[in-house]
Amino acid sequence: MYQEGASHLVNSHTTNEAAILSTTSFEEQRALLRQLRTAILQRFRPLLNSGAGPIRMMARVVEELKQECYSYHIAEEIIQEEIVNRTIGDINLRLITECEGEAGSSTDYRMLADELGLALPGEDLAGYTATGETYQWLRAQMMEYERLLLANKFDLRVYDIYAVGNPIMREWLAQEMQKWGYPVTSKNIQMSLGAMDGIDRALRGLAYRYRVENKSSFAMLCPEPGFGVPEWQASTYGYRIERLPTLAEHHFKLSADQLDQVLQQQEDISLLYFTITNNPTAFAYTPEEIRAINGVLNRYRAQGREIFVLADLAYIGTGKPEEDYERMAAFNEPETLKQTIFVSSFSKNYTLTGERFGWVTSGDPEIAAAISVSWSNGVASLPGEWQLRFMAYYQLFQARPWLADKLRSFYRLRRTRFIAQLHRINAEQSLFEEIYVDDDATVYNWSKLKAGEDAFSLFEKTGIAGVPGSGFGYTDEYIRFSIGVIPIAQR
After folding, report:
1. pLDDT tens per residue across span 424-467
2. Domain end: 367, 399, 431, which one?
3. Hey, which residues does 479 pair with through a beta bridge?
4. Are 193 and 358 within 8 A, CB to CB?
5. What confidence tier does 2 reach under pLDDT thresholds 50, 70, 90?
6. Cβ atoms < 10 Å from Cβ of 178
7. Vertex 363, ends 357 and 369: CA angle to 5°?
8. If we measure between CA atoms, which residue out of 424, 441, 408 comes closest to residue 488?
9. End-to-end CA distance of the chain
């Protein structure tokens, strides 16, 4: 009976709707929301693989559906239950509600925003009141580090002709990379506004170097599924993009045999984009797999080919420390290190996505100097306040090593809960062919849908919005979910 009435509301949006909905039950509002969800998916389905691409398309579907629900005055709690946005990868520390055990204990994850200095004094965090002590400490440290820089004849308030960041912070970051055993100094390091900015500048700098050398064609090899932004960046700078689909039986990781075959066939491949711990799949390369990849590359290098590796370390730090160490140690061989450019960030492993703290480490200081043109001709000077905050945060992490452990534990909690939720949904609706268990890293889940299902049908049936596999260069029978912004509902 209500379905006809709900359809009438959808088809004749009038100024009387607020009054009408104020008299309807939650069940009736829920039925209306589901009709709105079906209608908007029908509108957007033909546009899925056009325009801005699948990731932005799914985010747009979610946002526009929410706006329609608000215009119909549907209750906020129903909207939250029926529209679950798992497209965004970032953790919003202010929205954490999980407290395992006693309030104030090491497993009270609501405190993370306060402990990481994001929460303002007195801010309410799901019932926990922030002290704001770390927030204030960071600002006090910024002043002390400016004094330190001035004492070392470096003034952040004037033009920096190199634009790669202040020497003290770069020395600290070199020490960070030395933890993996790499023999690097500040000359190997350039600061960047997050990992994406670092990747962009490295690609631009290498492209400039190729042109100076009169290289007529240079290609970047991109194993897929993978993070797609570097492909767009590389295309902008004149790279040919060589996409290489990986296999499920290899956990969607590039194999040494695949690499060997493509290097034989495509002689212009000059760069491998290599995500050590993968977005979207949440699988990570083993040390043996990394050594096998580097072994193939070094064999071709011995034949006179220069093939760089752009190693994306965005999710190093979200997994088990001992396993991350072994992965990174696999690069510590002279010929490998010489042609590897590492891109690091605090965005994911410390949830500082709004701060944009990143850096680029070139194994060869001569390559660091060669690509510096991207910095000096790109930003003129890295922002002074940003550098001071970067310095303060770095020292916070040195003083509180337990923060990294707590964040890894929190990620594990959410991933485990989300996988359990997917299994419950699958038992009821049979939507998934396989729900993958990750390598205990990243903030994602990558799963395979059953034949006939895709991200749109899953959103319509469950209210959970994920990103289709085509958003990562793969097929839409796969889907990526984020555990990030929204807590996992518990039964």
Report:
1. 999 999 999 999 999 999 999 999 999 999 999 999 999 999 99
2. 399
3. 447, 468
4. yes
5. very low
6. 12
7. 80
8. 424
9. 31
Is residue 211 located within the same domain as residue 316?
yes
85 part of a folded domain: yes
Q: Say if residue 254 is in the same domain as residue 156.
A: yes
- 274, 327, 399 from 321: Cα distances, Å: 20, 10, 17
CB 184 within 8 A of CB 361: yes
Domain boundary among 399, 421, 443: 399
Containing domain of residue 418, as a range?
2-91+408-482
Hey, CA dihedral for 396, 399, 404, 407, is it positive or negative?
Answer: negative
Same domain, 202 and 82: no
Quick one: pLDDT band at residue 472, thresholds 50, 70, 90?
very high
User: Are 296 and 315 in a shared domain?
Assistant: yes
A 10 A CB-CB count for 402 gives 10
Helix (H), strand (E) at residue 5: helix 2-11
State the Cα–Cα distance between residues 475 and 469, nearest whole angstrom. Answer: 5
> The pTM is what?
0.92
Q: In this predicted model, what pLDDT tens digit does every residue of 388-412 receive, in sequence order?
A: 999 999 999 999 999 999 999 999 9
Region 191-213 average pLDDT: 96
Report the candidate in 70, 86, 88 with the shortest Cα–Cα distance to residue 78. 70
| Number of domains, the chain | 2
Angle subtended at Cα 27 by Cα 32 and Cα 43, rounded to the nearest 5 degrees: 20
Mean of the pLDDT values across residues 83-99? 91
In this structure, the chain runs to a length of 491
CB 324 within 8 A of CB 316: yes
What DSSP state is assigned to residue 248?
A: G
Q: What pLDDT does 229 receive?
A: 93
Task: Please determine, for residue 260, whether its predicted confidence score (pLDDT) is greater than 70.
Answer: yes
Tell me: pLDDT of 21 over 80.
no
Is there a domain that residue 100 lies in? no
Domain assignment present for residue 105? The answer is no
Residue 54 has pLDDT above 50, yes or no: yes
